Amino acid sequence: MRKLVAFEHMTVDGYASSGQGMGFEWTFRSYSEDLGVYGQDHIQADFDTAVYGRQTYLGMYNFWSTQPTAESAPHERAHAEWVNAVDKIVCSTTLESADWNNTRLIRGGLAEEFSRLKAGTGGAIAVYASPKLVHSLVELKLVDEFRIVVHPVVIGSGTPLFHDKSALDLELLETRSFDAGAVYLRYRVA
């Protein structure tokens, strides 16, 4: 059985998106080479399907589909090659099409679609950012793990990773801190 993992960057005050622009501009201050390499080589090592909500998908597509460039750092180049080749799913009721290679669109029936995916063979299914989608998947009791990078910043408002209806018991599996002050937390849903 495959795991469904929510891979999130989060502020100290619990927000996964600022609601401004792409929503995670606050990550750049504490994003470092050691975090990038660890993310690629360890946090994401078992992912073979990337899942996005509409807004995150559009931002990722607009940036990563044109990468890597000559100026890309090694971890950016590796991620660009991976994300352009990996199977991708975008969940949206309003998006007309999903044009990025290896992408399919899910317009509804999240419980059925993700239960079927999880019952199949393969690596972990990873939801990237997309906190509103994560809220829906948590309510449906489909998320198996949270892999969270907490950044040393407080933004005061935005979209929280866990909404007020969330009630989860979590088991800590792993922690790690990075040069620029970010901390990685890996939790299994108990």
Automatic annotation (TrEMBL):
The record places domain Bacterial bifunctional deaminase-reductase C-terminal at: 3-183
Query: What is the top-level taxon of the source organism?
Result: Bacteria
A GO term, aspect molecular function: 5-amino-6-(5-phosphoribosylamino)uracil reductase activity
- Annotated signal sequence range: none
Gene Ontology terms describing biological process: riboflavin biosynthetic process
| Protein name as it appears in the record | Dihydrofolate reductase
